[in-house]
Amino acid sequence: MVTAIVLIHVDASRIPQAAQEIADIPGVDQVYSCAGDVDLVAITHAADHEQIAELVPGHISQVPGVQRTITHIAFRSYNQRDADDAFSIGG
After folding, report:
1. Would 11 be classed as within a structural domain?
2. What is the model's pTM?
3. Mean pLDDT of the chain
4. Which domain range does residue 16 map to?
5. How far apart are CA 1 and CA 47, in angstroms?
6. Would you give the end-to-end CA distance of the chain in angstroms?
């Protein structure tokens, strides 16, 4: 499974509509509106890199109002539960 984090620049007047349309795309798990350098952040999952290569330019970038995307591929996932499990003393 490949996880990609997609940073999305959107025309300001289309942010809510674009966010919902992107959230409805298969393979997109979460969409967040943000303050800062980008308007939206999408968390995506796909079986392989080829599907990410189809998802971002073929679907996310085609949503009306999307101006630009920047895609980051995740290597590993870290969360508090993983850290707790790694350092817990079994019982």
Report:
1. yes
2. 0.85
3. 92
4. 2-78
5. 5
6. 32
